[in-house]
Amino acid sequence: MQLSEIPLTPDNQSFNLVAGNGRWCLQLLWRDSAWFLDLLDESGHEVLTGMPLVNGYNLLGQYEYLDIGFGLLVVSEDDGLGAPGIDDPGVRSRLYTVTE
């Protein structure tokens, strides 16, 4: 298993990523009280939207049938943290791509 960190800042952001079976656009958005991630294909079509960032779980694990080819893992400095707070991405919480 290989982990590669995706550099984040605690801001709403959009960035491109080459991983697994293609090129992707990830959008990280703060909505009310949690961070959510949208995954779009390279043409900008929505593949998955509204995935909450949750510490310690493969965010794409339940979507293996989509054959995306990689996973996304949130790791926080505080293992008890269920979800990153507004100031945590890139500071206390990190997002990694996971490939076999």
- SSE string, helices as H and strands as E: EEEEEEE
Strand order of the largest sheet: 2-3-4-5
The global form is globular
Number of strands: 7
Oligomer: single chain
Strand content: over 45%
Structural class: mainly beta
Helix content: under 10%
Architecture overview:
The protein is mainly β and 100 residues long. The protein is built from no helices and seven strands. It has strands at residues 2-6, 13-19, 22-31, 34-41, 46-52, 71-76, 93-99. The strands form two sheets. The protein has a four-stranded antiparallel beta sheet with strand order 2-3-4-5, with no helix packed on it. Strands 1-7-6 form a three-stranded antiparallel beta sheet, with no helix packed on it. The termini are close together. The mean pLDDT is 92.
State the main characteristics.
100 residues, mainly beta, four-stranded antiparallel beta sheet, three-stranded antiparallel beta sheet, 7 strands, 0% helix, 50% strand, globular
SSE layout and pairing:
Layout: E1 2-6, E2 13-19, E3 22-31, E4 34-41, E5 46-52, E6 71-76, E7 93-99
Antiparallel strand pairs: 1-7, 2-3, 3-4, 4-5, 6-7
Provide a brief overview of the structure:
The protein is mainly β and 100 residues long.
